[in-house]
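Changelog-adjacent note: as of this version, every example in the card shows the full chain rather than a window. The one below runs 88 residues end to end.
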Amino acid sequence: MLPDKFVTRHIGPRENELPTMLSTIGVNSLEELIERTVPKSIVLDKPLRLPEAMSEFEYLNYIKSLGKKNKMSVHSSDRGIMVLLYCR
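Full-length structure tokens:
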């Protein structure tokens, strides 16, 4: 992969990089790293229930459809015009 690709920049370490990374920071596993760095008070006791992931293309279409639901309203008063955007 090229270094300028999104996946290369934002998706965690590759399997072949893990041993060096873990050794460098002094832990034996990703689980140990998480246990040592994430406060217990914010760790969930069950997995998140998330919808299936969307592709970038699907998400862009989804977010555009949400934007089309916004309504703009123009109000005037003796002090000028106020433009309001109502998000639905």
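Structural remarks: The mean pLDDT is 83.
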